[in-house]
Amino acid sequence: SIVEEPDAPEDLKPRAPIVTVMGHVDHGKTSLLDYIRKENVIAGESGGITQHIGAYGVTLENRERIAFLDTPGHEAFTAMRARGAQVTDIAIIVIAADDDIMPQTKEAISHAQAAGVPIVFAINKIDRPTANPDKIKEGLAQMNLLVEDWGGKIQSHDISAKTGLGVKELLEKVLLEAEILELKANPDKLASGTVVEAYLDKGKGYVSTVLVQAGTLKIGDYVLAGTTSGKIKAMQDERGNAVTEVGPSRPISILGLDGASQAGDKFYVLEDEREAKQIASRRSQLQREQSVRTQRH
Ligand code: GDP
């Protein structure tokens, strides 16, 4: 019942890339996301990233932005994809240089490839004396994944998520990759995007973090997300600042939905509050009917 009108080319404006970090357990996904969250934010953006809202945006020195999904691992990526959500523009795949190319590394690579999402490799832990980044790149070459050092086209960078060595350069490579993709969205329409996290807060009620992918989301908007709907009462960014409106590629935490949406649900802003409510209740009725049917069988 929701039809997304195609945008006229002149209405499309450049937008920041949305990045997911994947890789084998213990290879350093969380450390990399933490390092970027803590260190890679330019001065002048009011304060550091204080809130864990499931996604965050950083601004680099050249003032370009990158949005990160702050849920490392490909479980989140595949769960969202299973729900039909396409939120990732670029995947950073972290590989520990003191280890091998492990099963989950291979899985992450095939997930990214299946989704048609370009990969940037972060060869991590190069501060360790036993690190052997060349061995990793050779292993990738054997899988037909030729990184730049090996004469190929795939971006990779040697980093230490612990000391921060190479992380800035890694992010510059992510931006290079983004440039090739020419990512664009129309900011001048009702917002739509994807839910990345949702929970019930004792004091605040239902809190959802959404990633705006098109349009501009504003306080007072009527939102439909999965089987829930509501009018946006307040919005807060990853720095804890209250915000009144947000454009494409920005993660934002919203208050006002009447239930818990789910990670991977698409959200839409509708002109009409009643329509949003009707669609949401029709969907939850369908869901109840389906679950009754599965219980019977
Ligand atoms: P994840 O499971 O992929 O999220 O991995 P973590 O970020 O939790 O890292 C696993 C372990 O490796 C932790 O003990 C980290 O402190 C350590 N670690 C991560 N990155 C580096 C690095 O660049 N250098 C070193 N020496 N240790 C690292």
TrEMBL record:
<comment type="similarity">
    <text>Belongs to the TRAFAC class translation factor GTPase superfamily. Classic translation factor GTPase family. IF-2 subfamily.</text>
</comment>
<protein>
    <recommendedName>
        <fullName>Translation initiation factor IF-2</fullName>
    </recommendedName>
</protein>
<comment type="function">
    <text>One of the essential components for the initiation of protein synthesis. Protects formylmethionyl-tRNA from spontaneous hydrolysis and promotes its binding to the 30S ribosomal subunits. Also involved in the hydrolysis of GTP during the formation of the 70S ribosomal complex.</text>
</comment>
<feature type="binding site">
    <location>
        <begin position="124"/>
        <end position="127"/>
    </location>
    <ligand>
        <name>GTP</name>
    </ligand>
</feature>
<feature type="binding site">
    <location>
        <begin position="70"/>
        <end position="74"/>
    </location>
    <ligand>
        <name>GTP</name>
    </ligand>
</feature>
<feature type="domain" description="Tr-type G">
    <location>
        <begin position="14"/>
        <end position="182"/>
    </location>
</feature>
<feature type="binding site">
    <location>
        <begin position="23"/>
        <end position="30"/>
    </location>
    <ligand>
        <name>GTP</name>
    </ligand>
</feature>
